[in-house]
Each structure stands twice: as C-alpha cells, then as structure tokens.
C-alpha cells in the first residue's frame, strides 16, 4: 500500500497529480524531453503546427471512443466506421456528381450523408447488441468491425474509389479558412460540442452515471439502454466525420482507412485518464492524449524510428498506460 | 479461565496519513472466550482485526500470541499460526464447487492427483458436524449469500484453529442459520478456541458473548463482562447517548392511499395485496429469503412482474419501466449500496448530482451546475454528511456515511412513496439514529414510507403498521399493540397455505 510509505512533499504532490489527471502529464513531459534531445527539428513552431494538423483525425475518433469507454465498454469498430464512410460517401459522391454535374455541392452533401448513414448503422448495431442483448462490447464491436470491413471491401472490390469531386478534397482535405486548415476548425467545433455534451447536458451526466454503476443509474431513473445506444451511435458518428475528412485528404474512397485507429484511440483515452472500468474521463484530457500519441509518432519519424518499431512502441505505450490506470484505480479505491 | 491469554495486544496503534485509525489499544482474548468488538463504523474494529488477521501491519504496539511476540507477514502467515478470519468480503471462488473452495490449497491427494471423492466426503462430514445443509458438489456462485458465509466459516477448519475472527457474520443470515452458527460457536468454545466477534446486533451479545470491548474513534472505551452490563450501557459507551434517543416517535396521520398493489406475483412471491397511505410508515418484516424485498422490487420494475396490478396515486404503473415509476413519485432505496446504490469511484457530491440532474434540479436545457451544487449542499446538510466527506470518493467513506449519501439520493428526485429496503444495513447506531430521524421527517411531511428490514427492533419501533411475510406470502398484517415480538415471530414461521 503506497500510502503506508512516508511521502515527502514532492512525492505527495506527484501522487495527487497522478490520481487527479492520470499518467498524461508525465508521459507528455517525457516525450518532449526525449524527442527534443533526439532531433533538433522536433521542438519548432512549424513542427508543432504540423502535429496539430495531423492529430485532428485521432482527436476526433478518441473523443468518440471516450464515450464508449466512459459507459464501461469500448468500440473496436471505429476503424470500420471510417472505412465504410469513406467507401460509401466516395461512391455516392461519384455517382451523384454524374447525375447532377451542375450542383456539385449537392452531390458532396448527399454523398456525405450516405457516409454518415452507413456509419450510424454500425453504431446502431453496436448499441443494440450491447444495450439490449447485453453482448460484451468486446465481442460486439469486434464482430461488427469484421462485418463492416467486409462490406467496405465487397462494395469496392478492394479497389480505391477515385474521381471524387475536386471541390470536396480541395475544401475538406487541404482547404484553409482564415489561414487555418479546415479540418482543424471542424475538430475545434467538435471539441466544443463534445465538451458541452459531457459537462453540461443530461445525456453527459447519464453516460457518466451508467459507466460508474449501471444498476445505480437504473434506480436513478436513467434509461440505461438508450444511454448506451446513444453513446455507441455518437461514437460512430464522430468516426464517420473523421472518415469523411480522411477521404478528402487522400482524395479517394479507401476500404483500408483507419486500420490502426481503434488501438490508437483507446491508447489516447487511457493515457488521458479515461478509466477502462467506465464512469471516468474528460474531453479536454482526451484531446491532449490524442495529441500526445501523434506527437510521439511525429517524434519517432523525426528520430527515424522505423514504422515497424513504431507499432511495437505504441502497443507497449498502451499497456504501460493501462498498468498506470490500474495503479491509479487502486490508489483511488483505497483512499485515505 | 486459564491465566494465559491467546492473544494480547499492548498499545496497538495504526497511523494512516492524516488519520490515527487505532490509538494504542490493549486487548486480550482468552481461550474458550467469545469476545465481542463493539463500536460504530470507523471506530477501529476493522483496523484492529485486520492487524490480528495479518492483513495489515501495526505502526505501533505489540501483538502476543500465547505469550510470544508476533509479527504476521500476511493473512496466510496468521492462518498458519491458527488465526483464521472470516471477513465480510468473501474469499470464495464462485466458479468452483463448494468442496473445491473449502480445500483450496489443502486438496487431499491421491498420488499426483487431487482426490475429489475424498474431498467431497470430508466436506460433507464437516457440514454434518456443523449442521449446515449445503451440497459440496454445488457451484459456489449459485449459493445464497448466507450459504456462502457458511462455506467461508467451514474453510476455517483446517489445521489447528486457535483463534476465529468473525466480522459481522450474521449480517446476511436467517434466524435459523444464526442459531446454527451460535451452536457451532459453543462447540468451538468448548474446544478452547478463542473467538473475536464483530457485530452491531446487540440482541446477539447476550446469547454468546463473554466479554465486550467497546471502541470509539480508534480508542478503547472499556472492556466489560457481558453478565455485568446491559444493552443500554453498551450503547451509551459506544455513542455517548442513551438508547431512547435512537428510535424517534413518529406521528401517525394516515391520509389517502398512495400505492396500491393487487395480486402482485413474482418469482417466489405469491399474489400479494398491499396498500400504503400518505403519512404512514409501513414496516415489512420477515426472514431473509421470504420475498419481502422481491415483492417491492417487482413493483419497482427491478424484478420481473408475473401478475397483478400496481397503481401509484391512481395511475396504473404495472408495466411501466423503473424510470417512469420514479418520475411518477416512487423511489426505491437499494439494500446493496455498493452493488446498485452508489458509484464508488465518484465523490459524494457527484453521486447526489446524478439524481438532482435527473430530477430536473439542474434546469431543463444545459445543466446549471451551480444550482445542482447548491441543492446538493442542502441535501448533504440535511442528511448530516460531514463537510469534509462531501468531496471525497464514496469508496473511502465508512458504511454509515455511504448510507447517508444513499439516503441523500432519495431527496434528489421528488417522490411521494419511499421504499426503503434494509435502510440501515451495516450501519452503526449513531448513524442509525440520524437516518431514523430522516424517516420520521418524511412520514410526518405526508410521504408514504415503506421500511423493509430484517432487523426486527427497527421495524417494530418505526412502523405504524406492519406486514409480515413468510415463504413468499403475506402471513399477517399487524398494527398498534399487535406488533409485539412474539406475535411477529410467530408469523415469521407461518406455514399455513405455504407451498414449499
């Protein structure tokens, strides 16, 4: 029991910080020191802006992932939602642009909605399975992830969907508004919406309550099934939005987008102090957690770590974060 | 009594950062003695036994076993020296059979293999000796809590047991099971085993205790021989107040019928009719497993409803989901505060906030957290939750304080009917008095209050009217002078018409 040891002032302060926000500040500090030492290009304004732009996609998905984690589950199918959105929206846009060549924005809009619809189906199936049939989130989202990936590959025959409207990629992939990249603006808007959702709405409170103790939530007049369903649907919707932005970035509909994002988003959340047991997690920390993962990837690129080795390190980082989460939980539950 | 104590502690202390949980306590246990530890939650009882059991190491003082100074490295270490503790949290593995659990780590062997037949035979023998009715081949997780407790106690009988520590062993037992346990304690006493017994149930002390040591705020108040003291004196030692201050007089002004159940049937409960009036406390008594909790859980929609009709303020809620029943004004306080009452990893304030938000106290649009916080301060004041505890995690609070938070949740949503299921389970006398006052205020404010309790004195003192259940049936409805202990107990065992 760690509270048995005579804690000095500094140690007590560090413990308190650790219990309050988790392992993230320590990881962030460590990453900054290590990569600054490894590469002189790392700690430059240009590089950090670059990291901010690259991190948009993971930040978005991680916020969705957080919802699933806070309810006490997780969503392994976020990558599939991305791939499905990419393929369906790209096919829709190409097809609709052929029908209405004059109103290209209508084609883009309708195509996007087709993509959202496909991802919402993923969220709906996840949510129904977890909430109404009480399938474990692990099995449910793993199964759905295979089903969705299969559909995406089936629809495209494994070939990327090309010939997207030029305006789509130009605006959502590379566009700038007031010299800020459009994806960054979209991410910021989403962050604000998610923060309001979790901190200021009844649904947010219900999601925390369901993850904290689902039976107690039930006896507090909370519709626990609806809450779980909505959490998985919102998660899929945000993943879908990410899929759309990624599609614009790569200028084609790809069934292999988002391959490693489930792992990365769970790592981002856990590092940011979202409890795997549910009930605990904050939007602002998750944003930082996702930023941290991308920062590490960027640092490893600059330090010329091979991409295979990067996979090793990312997995190790996730496990390490979970170990710290476990320690933190133990300290919390022991108290005193 | 032999002069050499089995266990003697001198100046035993436990210092946690910021809290002195045990303040130089001298304690001794003689062979063949039942020594009760008595005190409110947080008084230091658990800390004391955790050190005797080897689960915790003292920060000051000494422990002597048979006159020899001891330091226990672990629970297994203490067990090897003959000290066995049955904690409230069981150490059973739910997926193993009963026999496998009992012999876990002590499996009888036949060559290199576990001898399952011998294991079952010996388990059956032990159960016979203890007069417990349990099938050793049953999967442990399917047993009732009471039966699991018996298995846990049975596990103590390996090697030479010299000290048995029982932490609230009767909390989940039926009266008949308690009788068995006490018979068995007598057997142990005759063998010279020393027993440390923690309980809040004072009616048990007279039956089994030789001496009682009272603790308060980590310090020993005194040790008294049971035949030289009485309940009132013990309560006074424990709380510093008299017993007449514990149960309040609740004014009885019955109004209209708020909740009416007709022919409600669920698994193990047969067609029950219940009427509950405003301004009245209805007690529901019966043995553990008689269906008293299940009947009301069925009305709340938490347990399956098989038949019958339930109306709340004239509105049919028979098939309504739990959340709608709560919105219509019926609130259920769960007996299991850890399992389905509270979110342990959140603060007391956060736990209160959930119900306040759901009850609409945070406004209808975006949540107005300052209004919620204000309301939660009011509630915490009302249930007398000390200010220092409000922003602490619930997991770190004592059982009594957790129960105050659970009661506080009741007031987050406006209700007219309160179903309080075992409202003081595992709660000390001081906190009980405070909770009883809350019940009094609810009833006198015109609410209908149902108190479901296995604690007979509690129901008797609080209720204006009482339902007694036996074998899943209402066996009696009593009021006023009819509510005597003898009458109630007689109906506990009412077999008339029961289909067992």
Automatic annotation (TrEMBL), chain A:
Transmembrane segments: 21-43, 55-74, 81-98, 104-125, 137-157, 177-198, 229-250, 308-327
GO CC terms in record: plasma membrane
The keyword Disulfide bond appears for this protein: no
Keyword DNA-binding attached: no
InterPro entries noted in UniProt: ABC_transp_permease
GO terms for MF: transmembrane transporter activity
Compartment(s) where it occurs, according to its Swiss-Prot or TrEMBL record: Cell membrane
Record keywords, A-Z: Cell inner membrane, Cell membrane, Membrane, Transmembrane, Transmembrane helix, Transport
UniProt membrane topology term: Multi-pass membrane protein
Function: Part of the ABC transporter complex LsrABCD involved in autoinducer 2 (AI-2) import. Probably responsible for the translocation of the substrate across the membrane.
Subunit structure: The complex is composed of two ATP-binding proteins (LsrA), two transmembrane proteins (LsrC and LsrD) and a solute-binding protein (LsrB).
PANTHER family: ABC TRANSPORTER PERMEASE PROTEIN YPHD-RELATED-RELATED, AUTOINDUCER 2 IMPORT SYSTEM PERMEASE PROTEIN LSRD
Annotated protein name in UniProt: Autoinducer 2 import system permease protein LsrD
UniProtKB/TrEMBL annotation, chain B:
Alphabetical UniProt keywords: ATP-binding, Cell membrane, Membrane, Nucleotide-binding, Repeat, Sugar transport, Translocase, Transport
Family matches, as Pfam families: ABC_tran
Gene3D superfamilies: P-loop containing nucleotide triphosphate hydrolases
Top-rank taxon, per record: Bacteria
InterPro entries recorded: AAA+_ATPase, ABC_carbohydrate_import_ATPase, ABC_transporter-like_ATP-bd, ABC_transporter-like_CS, P-loop_NTPase
GO cellular component: plasma membrane
Predominant location category: membrane
Location relative to the cell: Cell membrane
PROSITE patterns per record: ABC_TRANSPORTER_1, ABC_TRANSPORTER_2
Membrane topology, as annotated: Peripheral membrane protein
Domain ABC transporter: 7-242, 253-496
Entry GO MF terms: ATP binding; ATP hydrolysis activity
Listed name of the protein: Monosaccharide ABC transporter ATP-binding protein, CUT2 family
Organism (species): Roseovarius pacificus
């Amino acid at each position: 029991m760690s509270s048995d040891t005579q804690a000095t002032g500094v140690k007590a302060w560090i413990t308190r910080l650790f219990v309050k926000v988790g392992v993230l500040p320590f990881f962030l500090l460590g990453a900054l020191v290590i990569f600054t030492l490894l590469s002189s290009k790392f700690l430059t304004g240009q590089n950090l802006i670059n990291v901010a732009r690259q991190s948009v996609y993971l930040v978005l998905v991680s916020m969705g992932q957080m919802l699933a984690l806070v309810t006490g589950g997780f969503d392994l199918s976020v990558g599939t939602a991305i791939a499905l959105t990419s393929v369906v929206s790209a096919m829709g846009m190409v097809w609709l642009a052929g029908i209405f060549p004059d109103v290209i924005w209508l084609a883009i809009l309708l195509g996007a909605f087709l993509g959202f619809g496909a991802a919402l189906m993923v969220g709906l199936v996840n949510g129904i399975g977890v909430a109404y049939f009480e399938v474990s989130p692990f099995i449910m989202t793993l199964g759905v992830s295979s089903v969705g990936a299969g559909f995406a590959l089936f629809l495209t025959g494994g070939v990327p969907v090309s010939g997207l409207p030029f305006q789509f990629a130009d605006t959502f992939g590379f566009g700038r508004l007031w010299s800020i990249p459009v994806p960054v603006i979209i991410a910021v808007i989403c962050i604000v919406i998610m923060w309001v959702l979790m901190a200021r709405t009844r649904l947010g409170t219900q999601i925390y309550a369901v993850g904290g103790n689902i039976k107690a939530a039930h006896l507090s007049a909370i519709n626990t099934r609806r809450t779980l369903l909505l959490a998985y649907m919102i998660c899929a919707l945000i993943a879908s939005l990410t899929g759309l932005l990624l599609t614009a970035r790569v200028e084609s509909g790809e069934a292999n987008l988002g391959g490693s994002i489930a792992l990365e988003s769970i790592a981002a959340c856990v590092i940011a102090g979202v409890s795997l047991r549910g009930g605990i997690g904050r939007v602002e920390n998750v944003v930082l957690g996702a930023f941290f993962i991308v920062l590490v990837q960027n640092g490893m690129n600059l330090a010329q770590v091979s991409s295979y080795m990067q996979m090793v390190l990312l997995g190790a980082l996730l496990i390490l974060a979970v170990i710290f989460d476990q320690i933190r939980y133990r300290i919390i539950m022991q108290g005193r | 009594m032999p002069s050499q104590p089995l266990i003697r502690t001198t100046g035993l202390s436990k210092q946690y950062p910021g809290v002195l949980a045990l303040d130089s306590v001298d304690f001794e246990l003689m062979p063949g003695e039942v020594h009760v530890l008595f005190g409110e939650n947080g008084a230091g009882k658990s800390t004391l036994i955790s050190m005797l059991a080897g689960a915790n190491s003292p920060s000051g003082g000494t422990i002597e076993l048979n006159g020899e100074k001891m330091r226990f490295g672990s629970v297994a270490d203490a067990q090897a020296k003959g000290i066995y503790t049955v904690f409230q949290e069981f150490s059973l593995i739910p997926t193993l059979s009963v026999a496998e659990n009992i012999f876990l780590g002590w499996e009888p062997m036949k060559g290199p293999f576990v001898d399952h037949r011998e294991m079952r035979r010996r388990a059956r023998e032990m159960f016979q000796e203890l007069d417990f009715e349990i099938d050793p081949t049953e999967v442990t997780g399917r047993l009732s809590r009471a039966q699991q407790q018996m298995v846990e106690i049975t596990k103590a009988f390996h090697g030479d047991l010299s000290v048995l520590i029982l932490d609230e062993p009767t909390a989940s037992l039926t009266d008949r099971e308690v009788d068995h346990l006490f018979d068995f304690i007598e057997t142990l006493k005759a063998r010279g085993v020393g027993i440390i017994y923690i309980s809040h149930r004072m009616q048990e002390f007279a039956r089994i205790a030789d001496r009682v040591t009272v603790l308060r705020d980590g310090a020993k108040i005194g040790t008294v021989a049971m035949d030289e003291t009485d309940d009132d004196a013990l309560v006074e030692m424990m709380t510093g107040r008299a017993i007449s201050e514990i149960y309040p007089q609740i004014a009885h002004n019955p109004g209209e019928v708020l909740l009416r159940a007709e022919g409600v049937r669920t698994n193990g409960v047969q067609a029950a009719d219940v009427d509950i009036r405003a301004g009245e406390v209805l007690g529901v008594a019966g043995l553990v497993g008689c269906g008293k909790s299940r009947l009301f859980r069925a009305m709340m929609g938490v347990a399956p409803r098989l038949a019958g009709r339930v109306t709340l303020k004239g509105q049919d809620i028979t098939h309504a989901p739990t959340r709608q029943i709560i919105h219509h004004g019926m609130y259920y306080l769960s007996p299991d505060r850890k399992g389905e009452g509270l979110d342990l990893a959140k603060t007391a304030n956060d736990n209160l906030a959930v119900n306040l938000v759901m009850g609409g106290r945070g406004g209808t649009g975006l949540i107005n957290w300052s209004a919620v916080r204000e309301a939660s301060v009011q509630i915490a004041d009302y249930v007398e939750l000390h200010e220092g505890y409000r922003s602490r995690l619930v997991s770190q609070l004592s059982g009594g304080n957790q129960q105050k938070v659970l009661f506080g949740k009741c007031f987050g949503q406006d209700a007219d009917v309160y179903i309080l299921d075992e409202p003081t389970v595992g709660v000390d006398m001081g906190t009980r008095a405070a909770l009883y006052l809350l019940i009094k205020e609810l009833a006198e404010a015109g609410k209908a209050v149902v108190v479901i309790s296995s604690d007979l004195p509690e129901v008797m003192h609080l209720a204006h009217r009482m339902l007694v259940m036996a074998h899943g049936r209402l066996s009696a409805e009593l009021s006023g002078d009819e509510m005597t202990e003898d009458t109630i107990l007689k109906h506990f065992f009412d077999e008339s018409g029961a289909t067992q």
